[in-house]
Amino acid sequence: MALIRLGFGRQHLCLLRRRSFLLSKLIAVVFAALLFCEFLIYYLVIFRCDWPEVKTPAHNSGQETLKAMFLADTHLLGEIRGHWLDKLRREWQMERAFQTALWLLQPEVVFILGDIFDEGKWSSPQAWADDVERFQKIFRHPRHVLLKVVAGNHDIGFHYHFVMVNSVALEGDGCNLCSEAEAEIIDISHKLNCSREEHHSSRCIDEQPLPASAPVLLQHFPLYRRSDANCSGDDAAPLEERDIPFKERYDALSREASQKLLWWLRPRLVLSGHTHSACEVLHGAGTMEISVPSFSWRNRNNPSFIMGMLTPTEYALAKCYLPYENTVLATYCVAIGFLVVLMLAHFKLLASPLLFGWNLLRKLKTT
């Protein structure tokens, strides 16, 4: 009887060990999948991004260079349209991408080109305060890094050779906000013209001088263009959408507002968002406009941001892609499949790969 009990005890102990070993393997696979998909993949992907080199003339080789990041259309979900799981997934993706980019790339200034929130025009005061708090958590940054949000603050300013325009206010219908915005743009245009003049006229005497360089125009809406038909690249609009005509004041600024901005500010570069897709457009007198794709998986499978190296006279841009969402989903699917195989093998519903290979070799030898 004692021997039977001892044998039963050993059997039970062996079974417990096998189960604990299976549990350890399952936990290890789940942990490895989570660690890779939610942390490591961001470092592996963003680590490949490099700041572009600015080609400066020899006589301007001592110019200070500014490292700037440009991203757009984060669309943080609110309480009306946002499912909690969707909010959790998308916001975690943007938080990890942004924090990883800050740590690896060390930008000096970050610009977000509008559409920060998805429900700003419908939010209650409390919901708006909650959304702002979440935004500040996701896009937290060190004190030495300047973060500027374009549009939404109904402001126009001049920082580091950048003109930030609330393009939502450029409807041209005479509204109070539109009139104020246009007046401020004219005022900045006047100051820029004074800074460009070698011999200042009497009307520039009382003006505080700005850097004597063409500005970079930052706004949410793109300047007027007929469509995305001439856009190309992996992150351009889908082929079936590129020929759809743009509506003025909805998909892009009106032709009139665009001409005014180009005429008044004479920018060397324009960066915009809103379309969620990438595009490069050459305007009028050779002014390049870059449409910055969305930063969120909610709007596209391959989000990205722009890295810019800027001097008072030159600039160089490069694009940095974030992890593809389908890559992360495929990794999780592989991990789930591996978990299923482990469990089937444990319960002997599936032969182990080694045993299956050994039996296959034996059959081949006998035939």
**If strands are numbered along the chain, what order do they take across the biggest sheet?**
4-5-6-7-9-8
What is the number of beta strands?
Answer: 11
| CA radius of gyration | 28 Å
The level of helicity is 40-55%
Task: List unreliable stretches of 5+ residues.
Answer: 152-160
Structure commentary:
By secondary structure, this protein is of the alpha/beta class. The protein has 7 helices and 11 strands. It has helices spanning 2-46, 84-105, 125-138, 176-196, 255-265, 325-346, 353-366; strands at residues 66-71, 109-112, 146-149, 157-159, 162-164, 216-218, 269-272, 279-283, 287-291, 304-310, 315-321. A 6-stranded mixed β-sheet has the order 4-5-6-7-9-8, with no helix packed on it. A 5-stranded mixed β-sheet has the order 3-2-1-10-11, with no helix packed on it. The longest helix is centred in the N-terminal third of the chain and has 45 residues, at 2-46. It starts with a helix and ends with a helix.
Topology:
Blueprint: H1 2-46, E1 66-71, H2 84-105, E2 109-112, H3 125-138, E3 146-149, E4 157-159, E5 162-164, H4 176-196, E6 216-218, H5 255-265, E7 269-272, E8 279-283, E9 287-291, E10 304-310, E11 315-321, H6 325-346, H7 353-366
Parallel strand pairs: 1-2, 2-3, 5-6, 6-7, 7-9
Antiparallel strand pairs: 1-10, 4-5, 8-9, 10-11
InterPro entries: Calcineurin-like_PHP, Metallo-depent_PP-like, MPP_MPPE1, PGAP5/Cdc1/Ted1
Subunit structure: Interacts with GPI-anchor proteins (via the GPI portion). Interacts with TMED10.
Keywords: ER-Golgi transport, GPI-anchor biosynthesis, Hydrolase, Manganese, Membrane, Metal-binding, Transmembrane, Transmembrane helix, Transport
